Amino acid sequence: MDFNVKRLAADAGTFLSRAVQFTEEKLGQAEKTELDAHLENLLVRAENTKQWTERIMKQTEVLLQPNPNVRLEEFVYEKLEKKAPTRLNNHDLLGQAMIESGNDFGPGTAYGNALIKCGETEKQIGGAERELIQSVAINFLTPFRNFLEGDFKTILKERKLLQVKRLDLDAAKTKLKKARMADARAAAEQELRMSQSEFDRQAEITRLLLEGVSSTHAHHLRCLNDFVEAQTTYYAQSYQYMVDLQKQLGSFPSTFSNNNQSSVSGGASISVPTISVSASLPSVSAGHGSSPASGGFNELRGSNGSRRARVLYDYDAASSSELSLLADEVIVVSSVPGMDSDWLMGERGSQKGKVPITYLELLN
């Protein structure tokens, strides 16, 4: 019990001497042992490394997940050591909406088919984005976080201990200066030697740890290369997906943005990149050049009569002067003087309007 009391009294005395030394230094009433320039530079570099690592990590997380609420939720799950629920990203959600709308409009129509193709590509990009996030989390963010929560905390701990040893050293110096009696001076000199030894030892430990930050920089450089490689892969995949999609959409009708594709020719898909525009749907150039009209259409124009015609492709009227068409329906067509050679006047019951001849096949 007496030993514990003495130990507590000694600890209290040491704490008090440190507090007095610290206070007098702040008031300019006591000298302070300065660290050597090399150690000071190492401390500054370590602190800068910590601050920039935190900032880079934060901005990387914002890049990967712009939604702050989702980031907070993921942080909570991480602290609770639980797996966050799988959620669709923005590309997934857009792709899902496009696919559902395409199925609603009909996969057999040009617009519906194009929506489905776009939706599938968006979901592919969504998958590539998840792979990017996973790769960056493992190869970039985790090593950065390990430095902050591991190596830097150790550096911080030893740095604080160095500060304590420095206060003890300066307190011992002050005590020696104030000692008047020979016995007191001898005791103060012994205390100073011990304090100096402990300070030098702690300074060396701290220096070795701080010099290890160079290895941290080298490791983080490799992580940075991994980060760039992951981004390169992601953007290359996304670019290739979009190039492939562009080729597929290139085989869709282009002159009329609302044209629908026919299911004629056995319902072959119009999205195959090798099928040309002219193969999937004849182009209509109203008012610009002549169409490859057959002899039947020439005869119809010359006779000023009317003929029955079967509709080859769905067609959405672009204006009130035109007539919308459905594939395989039969309408009556006639030639009107002064009308462009690519068009005829179509009639379906009481409905009447211009129709493109490339969407028609005359019947006997």
Describe this structure in words.
With 364 residues, the protein is of the alpha+beta class. It has helices at residues 2-26, 37-64, 68-79, 90-105, 110-178, 182-211, 213-249, 277-280, 295-303, and strands at residues 306-311, 330-334, 343-348, 351-356, 360-362. The chain has a 5-stranded antiparallel beta sheet. α2 (37-64) crosses α6 and α5 runs antiparallel to α7. The protein is rod-shaped, with a radius of gyration of 41 Å.
Radius of gyration: 41 Å
Order of helices and strands: HHHHHHHHHEEEEE
Envelope shape: rod-shaped
Strand order of the largest sheet: 4-3-2-1-5
SS class: alpha+beta
- Number of H- or I-type helical stretches: 9
Average predicted confidence as pLDDT: 81
Unreliable spans are: 254-293
Helix content: 55-70%
What profile does the largest beta sheet have?
5 strands, antiparallel
Ends: how far apart?
121 Å
Beta strand count: 5
User: Which oligomeric state applies?
Assistant: single chain
Residues in β-strands, percent:
5-15%
